[in-house]
Amino acid sequence: MNFVIAVDGPAASGKGTVAGRLALAYDLPYLDTGMLYRAVGALAGSTGGDFRTAAITWASALNPESVYDPQLRGGRVGDLASRAAAIPEVRGALLDFQRSFATQAGGAVLDGRDIGTVIAPSAPAKLFVTAAPEIRAERRWKQLAGHGETVSFEEVLADIRLRDARDSGRASAPLVQAADAVLLDTSEMDISQSVEAARRIVEAARGRWETSHSG
Predict the structure, then answer these.
(1) N or C, which end of the chain has less CB nearby within 10 Å?
(2) What is the arrangement of strands in the sheet containing 107-112, beginning at the earlier edge strand?
(3) What pLDDT is recorded for position 51?
(4) Would you kindly state where each structural domain of the chain is located, as residue ranges?
(5) What is the per-residue pLDDT for 215?
(6) CA-closest candidate to residue 116, choices 196, 173, 39, 62
(7) Phi-psi region of 195 (alpha: psi -120 to 50; beta: other; left: phi over 0)
(8) Rounded CA gap, 185 and 208, in Å?
(9) Into which CATH architecture does domain 3-212 fall?
């Protein structure tokens, strides 16, 4: 029996922090699927030439270890990741890797844009973590500043809105809340409050899942 926790949401909503803490709480392996697209985007952006062609090539031969490079957290890479994620062939190439991770024995925690709708549609626990664009932009701005990047709040907010439009409007696996996902708006929450709220949602889902498997 696999207890999978699917955490979706837009950029800088706090879903990564929530997903990581849930993985620790339930002792489950964790995959930040956005890092796959960041790795592909960064590689394609550094290759030169046609971005689409390069992204498809790198996605087909991506070394999973490359997603742990801390430099992938930068703001410019986030835009490249969003561009790469909008390419259907890239999403297709990375699909099997993500689904394999989600189906491993015991379960897993995954966060991204389409976990509950495409990667693990049968996940027992689904959350859609979001926050107001201005709140998310402030969080990302502070994060980038902490990494030494010089960028204005207005630029970050514009990037957040652009990525929201791109992620929600793409033809392949757009960002959308799964019908059975629980909405968690973290606009007025700090990290500890967000994690606690997420745990309550997961506990309720786990109770239903265990009941359904008890017989």
Answers:
(1) C
(2) 30-32, 107-112, 3-8, 125-130, 182-185
(3) 96
(4) 3-212
(5) 61
(6) 173
(7) alpha
(8) 23
(9) 3-Layer(aba) Sandwich (3.40)
Q: Which tokens hold the place of 43?
A: 């590689």
Amino acid at 144: L
CA-closest candidate to residue 112, choices 97, 98, 131, 93: 98
The pair of structure tokens assigned to 80 is 């490249």
Place of tokens 């010089």: 150
Residue 74 phi/psi, 5° resolution? -65, 160
Average confidence (pLDDT) per 10 residues, the chain, 215 residues: 91 92 95 90 90 94 80 80 88 89 93 93 96 94 86 93 86 87 95 96 95 79
pLDDT value for 1? 59
Query: Which residues have C-beta within 8 Å of that of residue 77, sequence separation ≥ 6?
Result: 38, 41, 42, 45, 71
pLDDT of residue 76: 77
3-class SS at 43? helix
Cα gap 47→53, rounded to integer Å: 10
DSSP 181: P
